Amino acid sequence: MRPSKGKSSNVTPGPSAASSSQVRLLAGSNETGPDGLLKDITVVDVDEPGPVKKSRADRSQDIDTFFSPSFIKDGKKYRNCTPCTKLQKRPVSFVNEATTLQWHQQATHKADYLKWAAANNFPSMLPQDTKQQRDAVTASKQPQTSLDSHLVSKPQLSIS
Question: Is 73 helix (H, G, I), strand (E, B) or coil?
């Protein structure tokens, strides 16, 4: 309900027009606090730190630990596996794709990777572990059950 021209702007609508919180907000919308701001306004401190999104470097920390920096060869980016390179005494290169590198970690260096991840409080990004994490989330979002088993037929009443 809008106030008509010439009438006060503090008109509170009836209960059917707005909820009680909206009525309170409209009724007290011109009240000011000691700071001179309207009472119904919350001032957010812009200097207060908000949620911090992990940077790309933080998310790929496992790859950076076990593989050399990327390099370009034949127009593609590659990385050398540091443990394999030390063991075989020659560069062991893989295409610089996170999933490719993580599959290699799972197949060849799983125990070392899990030990490192636990020591560094890093969630395991091995394909097997990420699949289990996805499955756990999917299992927790089970479809809604049916009401059919809870409903019973009632005899109809005849009104005379």
Answer: strand
